[in-house]
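Lecture 7 notes: from sequence to structure.

We start with a single chain of 681 residues. Read the sequence below before looking at the structure.
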Amino acid sequence: MLVLKVVVSILVVWLFTRLSAEQQSTKIWQYFKILVETAVWIFLLQSWPEARMAIISPFGLPKIIGILYVVVCLGMLGILLTDLVQLKKKSTQHIALDVGVKNWAIGIERGKGTWEKNRKILMGKVHQKWIEGVLQNSLHKHVQNALGWDEMPVIADMEWRQGVQPTETLPSDTPLLKRFDQLEPARSLLVLGAAGAGKTVLLLKLAQDLLERTQSTDVTTPLPIVLNLSSWRTQGLSDRTNLTFIAWLQEALWHQYQIRRDASFSELKQRQWILLLDGLDEVAEQYRDTCVEALNQFRQTFGNIDVVLCCRTAEYEALNTPLDELQVIIRIQPLSEAQVHHYLHHGGELLAGILSAWQKDPSLRTLTFTPLYLGLLTLAYRNHSAEGLMNVPEDQRLRILFDRYIQQMFLQGSVSQTKQQQMQRWLSRIAQGIGSEKEFLIEQMKANVWLLTVRDQWAYRLSLGVLVGLIGGLSIKPIGWLIFMLLYWGVLGSLGAVFYGIVLLMIAIVAGEFLKWLFIGLLAGIVLVVTIWLLAKYYAQLNRRINASILHDSYPNQEIWYRFRVLLMNCIKHFFVTTSLSGFLLIAFFPLLEDLAFRSMLESVIGLVFILLVLRGEGLVCIQHVALRLALALTQQVPLDLVMLFKQAEDRLFIYRIGGSYVFIHRYLQEHFANLSFDET
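Now the structure, written as tokens:
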């Protein structure tokens, strides 16, 4: 009968796992699952007397069945408690996502105090990530430094069209902020231009001017927030379009600026941000129209939000859904032949070789009308002749230009040919892994994206198995022994000193050694109080450090390190949980504890319960991330130390670091790296 109950319980749990994720995510299903799990738990507990008799049986098979019964009981209890916690979390998230009037009031009340406190921190993050990280390290700035110029002698002009008014040409030195301020409230501005025309630079200059003004004004002035739309997706989000964009916005704000997901609603409602959205053309083509529809619906819901959007001209004109109620469209004009000639002539001997080829080849002149290619040409061929680019097809010319640029950037440091080849292989694999995305976050590397071959998948399984094996093999027995000894002597238990004191007194009366056990009980109570106080103090301190680091810092692989620190907190919490569950086992099996073999087995069970609790969340995410990194390093796709690789790539102007993420200096360079081929011999 005992075996039948254990088998039935395991079968019920297995059947639950067979249902689809959509079914398991419904609220009715959650309640039903908890109800069934409670019934199974009660069903199992009815056989406790029978199980205890089996455990104390001198025969091996009944004892094994009894122990299996205990493990299943503890497992069912753990599943039940986990589902209860998840149900509570989902209820909280549902409240945060509800845009009803009542919940808006809650959001405003919760966000009001934190906005003023964190305003300067957010301003610092925007400045650090986008102004210092991108604008001040842009290709234009590096060209300026390489040629020793105080200012770039040529920047593209802009075509400004406001509503039905006639088109106006703005000189390149026109302050965009001044014109932006002249627009009506809920300003909307679209920046169009060819690839490499300088749309992002123009957007970030506006962000810089807005930040400088915001620093000298009161806290009600909207704060510019720069985001890249390339990560926008519809999968897994709400079917309601307005919430789809809000859900994406919440995730983007969390990953880029560590803004609490539930806090963003109140701040949006109070018109505290200006959204500067770059890279609409970098949204996957099949999602681009849906993204614009979502943005239109979002602007109808939050009509008081200022929005500036950048997109390539061709991609925007190909949309079926235009952006609604645009106040201004800015088109960045190509450079004129006179501007480029002045630029190259101004460079003197450094650019003489480029100027000579430029004057001879009309097709090369057309290429230089784009600021991106003009900058790449300057860095790749300064002090050298550019005749190798003359009279070749455009696609070959671009490949030659990018190869020459990469070669010249490697000359900035003493890097061997072998090391150069290796770095190019790694950067090529990273460019392929980024795919249609623009920003690369180390913590968001996914196994299904990076493990493309059977060899990669086996390397990942091997790494994961070794890590789990090491953690289990090295931790289960020592942790189980520690918890067992603490409980055995009555030193620690989350049920409290009173519970263990009563147990100790009962044992003392039966044993006839009242004074001895009373002394041990008093000592245990003191140790218990001191231990709990020290652990609680460390837990609170660790929690403060986690919150402070997430709020103030932006660094590579931030989310994994955040999860690791949360894992440490969970270890403390699960230590108390495991101790409480283990107390039930020790009281039940107290007469058998003199059997060393049984005690050793019980220690293993206790340690296994602790490890399983720890690995059911942050621990598993951290292990999977480390296993993925190990697998990619074993298969020589990327180095184990990705941060060092990106630092070297930054020094050679292949990549920008934007806070905790990385971006190739331009989409075209990323595509060039992704398409590189190598001689495997």
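Strands lie at 158-162, 168-170, 188-193, 223-228, 273-278, 306-312, 328-332, 655-658, 661-664. Keep this in mind for problem set 3.
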